[in-house]
Known about the structure:
The protein is α+β, with helices and mostly antiparallel strands. α3 crosses α4 (137-149).
Amino acid sequence: xxxxxxxxxxxxxxxxxxxxxxxxxxxxxxxxxxxxxxxxxxxxxxxxxxxxxxxxxxxxxxxxxxxxxxxxxxxxxxxxxxxxxxxxxxxxxxxxxxxxxxxxxxxxxxxxxxxxxxxxxxxxxxxxxxxxxxxxxxxxxxxxxxxxxxxxxxxxxxxxxxxxxxxxxxxxxxxxxxxxxxxxxxxxxxxxxxxxxxxxxxxxxxxxxxxxxxxxxxxxxxxxxxxxxxxxxxxxxxxxxxxxxxxxxxxxxxxxxxxxxxxxxxxxxxxxxxxxxxxxxxxxxxxxxxxxxxxxxxxxxxxxxxxxxxxxxxxxxxxxxxxxxxxxxxxxxxxxxxxxxxxxxxxxxxxxxxxxxxxxxxxxxxxxxxxxxxxxxxxxxxxxxxxxxxxxxxxxxxxxxxxxxxxxxxxxxxxxxxxxxxxxxxxxxxxxxxxxxxxxxxxxxxxxxxxxxxxxxxxxxxxxxxxxxxxxxxxxxxxxxxxxxxxxxxxxxxxxxxxxxxxxxxxxxxxxxxxxxxxxxxxxxxxxxxxxxxxxxxxxxxxxxxxxxxxxxxxxxxxxxxxxxxxxxxxxxxxxxxxxxxxxxxxxxxxxxxxxxxxxxxxxxxxx
Length: 608
C-alpha cells in the first residue's frame, strides 16, 4: 500500500541522489519462458533474427531484429524455428557460456557503429572471444573508441542494448539489439497475473489495450491513456497534487488481490472491486513508476490455463538433399521437436507429386530438376509447424572410358619424348588427363573435348624402367580406370637374365645387372654390335646379345692366330692322308693293266 509519507521519502531520496552518482543496470522486461527464434544472414547485421511466441507485455515483442554472432567457429542453422531463452546482457544470472567482462564495451559499440557489418562483427568477436585484433580500419577505430569511452557504459532509454539468446536445446550463441523504452513520469504496468496471487511473477506478461485514467482526489478526470503492447502506461503532464489512478478491467478478466507481499514494486495497487488506487501526492518533476494493476482470467480451475506451444519442424539433419536421377535420398526430420509435448506425425511432400510420412523417409526422383520439399510436423495437441527445403536432382554422370596412351618405349636421359593420349566420355563431358610419370612427378592437362587426343612431353633424368600411368577425369571428377605403359630409359632387358644399363648416357651400354647374382658387371660391345655379357660374375663372358634382334647365344671364346694356323695345318695333313689312303690301290690297278696283267716289278727268268 502506498502511504501518505511517500512524498517525504521521495524528497529524501532526491536529496541523497543529488550527492551520489549511482550506476545501475538498465531495466528491460523480458519473458522468462521459451520463445521461438529464426535466423537468417543479414545485410546490415550478421543475422536478421525473427522472434515469435513472445507474450504481450514485455519490452521485446514478436518481430525481426538485428542480430550478431557470439561463437565465431560455429555456424547457425538458418530458416529453422529454434526455441530459446532471452537474457539481458547486464543480467547477473546470464548463462555461464555468455559471461564476459566486456558487455559494457559491446553495448557501447552497438550504439556507436562504424563501417560495414563485417567491421562491427569483427569488433564484437574481439571483445567476446578475445580473438585477434581486427585489421579493418573501421573496426580498429571502434575498438579505440570503446576502450576509451565504453568502460562502465550503460544504455539509456532510446539506446540499443544486447539481448542474449540461448537455445534450448543448444545452438550457436547469438544476441540481438533491442531499443530500450522511454522512462515514464507516472505509471507503470498492467499485467496478466496468471496465478491470481496479486504479485508480479517472472514470465507473467503485460496486457495491452487497458484503459487507465488519472483523477484528482475529488474525482476530476485529468488524463486518460491505454496500455501499449507491453502492458505499460504513463502520464507525463499534470500539476503537483493529490491523485488516484483507475484501471478498466477488460472483458473476461478480474482484478488481482491488492497489496500482496512486501515488495511494493511487485504488488497490485488497484482495488479488486473498483479498480482504483489509493490517493497519493504525484509530482510531475519526479519519476514514479510503481503503480501497477494485476488482472487474471478465471477458469474452471480458478486460474488461467497456459496454451499449447507449436512444435518445431527441422529437416536439416539430411541436408543437403542432392542426388542423381533414380538415386535414393534419405529425408531426415529427426531434429524436429516439441517443447511441451511430443510429435505424433511427420508428413513430407517431395515436389514431384508424391508424398510420404515418417521421421526419416527414402525417396528418389526420375527426372532432373530442383524440387521444393516440405516437412510438416504435428504435436500431440495437433499444433503444426513446417520446414521447407530443396532437393537438387541431376542426370547421372558416367566415368570416362579408359584412355589409350602411346609413345616411345625406349629412350635416353635428359631428352623430352612426346606421348599421345585419348579418351571419350559417355556423357560428352569435357575431359582432363592426369599423368604419373613414374619418377615422382605428375602433371595434368586442361579440359578438352571428349575424344580429342592431346600431346604431352616428358623427360627423365636417370636411367631406369618407368611405368607411365594416366587417367581421364570429367568436370564432375568422375574418373576413368588407369591406363599405363612401360618406358625404358637407357636400360634394356636381356630376356630373363637381367638388363643392360647405359650408365654414362652415351650410345653404348656399360653395365649389366644380373638377376642371378643381383650384381652389376661390365659388358663388352663387339664389332658386330653384339654385347658379351658375364651373368654369374666369374669374370668370363657367358652370353652374347643382339640388341636389334633380341637374340641371345652362348658365348664362344676366339682363338689366337698361331693356334688357328696349327689347326689349319693339322687339318690339311688329315685331308692329305685321307686322299693317299683312298687313291693308293687305284694307282696300282692302272699299272697292272698297262703291263698286261703282270707286275712290272716281277722279272721272268732269263730277263734282265
